[in-house]
Amino acid sequence: MTDGFVHRVLAQVEVSFSNSMIEAFWRSLRHQWLYLHSLESFTQLAQLIDFYVREHNIQMPHYAFVGQTPDEVYFNQADRVRDGLTAARRQARRARRAANRDESCRVCGPPPTPQSVSVIHAVANAPPRLQNVPGRGSARAT
Q1: pTM for this prediction
Q2: At CB < 8 A and 24+ separation, what contacts does 22-29 make?
């Protein structure tokens, strides 16, 4: 403000001295937690903040940490958690594929044969059929 004007400074991304990450944390704390509770005293405020910080670090998975909590990343448990999630995802995918293969469609019946597919394709791509309309003397497509 040396020239008499107020300059707005925005938080910078990917800069080690920027405080944008802590600002985002406090915004989340306010909007997701504090604004939802009636604050009667400073003691209650301190308890709510303490609870949120504990849950934030221990329970809440974070997108930036690929679904891991800050404690898991900080205490070097990230590899174990990531490997466990990868194994669980593969197992779930295998189970889903097996269930889908075993399930038969009760509406459609058996899968179409190559002959029925060619007939359906020929009918779908056939040109419109001309039909005489009585009293008009001309033909129209149906």
Answers
A1: 0.42
A2: 25/56, 28/56, 29/53, 29/56
